[in-house]
Amino acid sequence: MNPFYQYDIHLPANMDPDKRYPVVFTLHGKGSNEKNMFGLVAPLADDFIIIGIRGNLPLGAGYQYYDLKSLGNPIREMFDEAVKQLEAFIHYATEKYPIDPGERYLLGFSQGAILSMTLALTMGDELNGIVALNGYVPDFVKTEYLLRSVKDVSIFISHGEYDSVFPVRIGHETALYLKDQTKRLTFKLYPTDHGVSEENQLDFLNWLKHDAGLITKKD
Description:
The protein is α/β, with parallel strands linked by helices and 219 residues long.
């Protein structure tokens, strides 16, 4: 099978050939690319396989996974196709590389966060956890998609208090929606616009390491 998406993969430097590793799939924002996302998760590179998935649609100097009718209003057919193809890519990569299927994480920013939360809702416990930075769950996903339980999925959501693209109330609404479905939800606000602060990065890196059992709370 040829993957639908181009991607960037980083394998741990001292890999044990008999071991399967946790994986973080990164999903970038509109107009960005997979290499821009690597900097956010580079400190995990010794312990995780990191796969940056590039959107298939060129946009300026970057890419996107789907186009929009208007802000916050994805073109439904393109969005549906992206969700289907990303799920297929996750299974493709799990078979191709030494990935532990019980330790699969998604980390997305903006458009990537929207897709990460949607995939959590459609894949359920096929994913161990997601990090969603400055995103939301589209209404049509909540009402028209076939959703699976996320009670066993760990979810880290963060939002900028001064986000000028998706106002902070969207972060609160998203957290409230998911809070009803899982006890494994972490929701944090940061004094930023539509971006990721150093504090935000440190928090989700520690969250990922802890959730994957690489550090304990004492550490």
